[in-house]
Amino acid sequence: MATLKELAGLVQGIVVGDSKMEIAGVSTIQDGKVGTITFLAHPRYFKYAESTLASAVIASSNEMLAGKNGILVESPQLAIGKVLEYFSPKYPSQKGIHKTAIIDPSATIGNDVSVGPNTVIESGVTIGNNTVIGANNVIHSGSVFGSSSEVKNNTSFFHRTIIGDRCLIHSGAVIGSDGYGFVRYDETHFKIPQTGKVIIGNDVEIGANCTIDRGTIGDTIIEDMCKFDNGVQIAHNVILGKGCLLTAHVTIAGSSKIGKFCIFGGQSGVIDHVTIGDRAVFACYTAVMKDLPGGKIYSGAPAREIKEKNRRDAVHIEVKRLKIRLKEIEINLKQRDNDLN
Description:
With about 350 residues, this protein is an alpha/beta fold. About 15% of the residues lie in helices and about 30% in strands. It has 3 domains: about 1-85, 3-Layer(aba) Sandwich (Udp-n-acetylmuramoylalanyl-d-glutamate--2,6- Diaminopimelate Ligase, Chain: A, domain 1), CATH 3.40.1390; about 155-300, UDP N-Acetylglucosamine Acyltransferase, domain 1 (3 Solenoid); about 310-340. The protein is built from 3 helices and 39 strands. The strands form 7 sheets. It has a 10-stranded parallel β-sheet with strand order 8-11-14-17-20-25-28-31-34-37, with no helix packed on it. A hairpin with a 4-residue loop joins strand 38 and strand 39 (about 305). The model has no long low-confidence stretch (mean pLDDT about 95).
């Protein structure tokens, strides 16, 4: 429970209305509940502002509050994130090293590290202070984990993987497995040894069931503050710049270099050996097949700047309409000729 004033202090906002109102949780604006706070950030939800039963609203302007109690902030989404964190239930977590964990004597374990049941930590591994390793994980030899990171359950980290500080790795992730490398000779596929490693920076989040392959000779590098949704695949020797956002089922092929703060929509992808500039945005299902500059929005397969893609689509639709119209004219002319005869 918190007052509206206390929540406003948490999000550095301005109270509108009853500052002493008590708030017990968060609800959506279209399914608002009395005693909770909601937020309004996207125009499509403005229609719910007057009818919501939520007791308070977080918004960016007084007009959006529609006469309700609320908090004014610059970014309602950021504010509701902080409020959700405040009200989130606190679940019990593993403390200390579980008796069933298997830790090689040569591993270096920092202060206040927690290791869950049945986790295996091999030789030469280093785990930084305050890091939490869940249950049933395997950390292969020579891997290094920074401080205050968290690994959920059932993950695998192959040899010499490096994880930075304050990272969050969700269940099912496989990091540092072999890249897909083969040479065909005389009707045989020869496997190319993958001798590099994976290096992940600070404040990175890896979603459930993501896979990041080790480099062939050099390293696969994920720079600071990148955030992965579930099911992302990163191939060998990829370099992913700082602050990139990858949503579900994005695939980045080998040796591609992605600039800083790029955004990839669901199921978009990049072929191998492609370079992309900073702050490029790719719509869902976009396929990048050549080098592209940053600072633009792309769509389609192959990827084109979205304005060009929309123009091409419009021309395609118009051509289809013209073909239908020409067919109708042909039918009418034929019918007229038959009538004259």
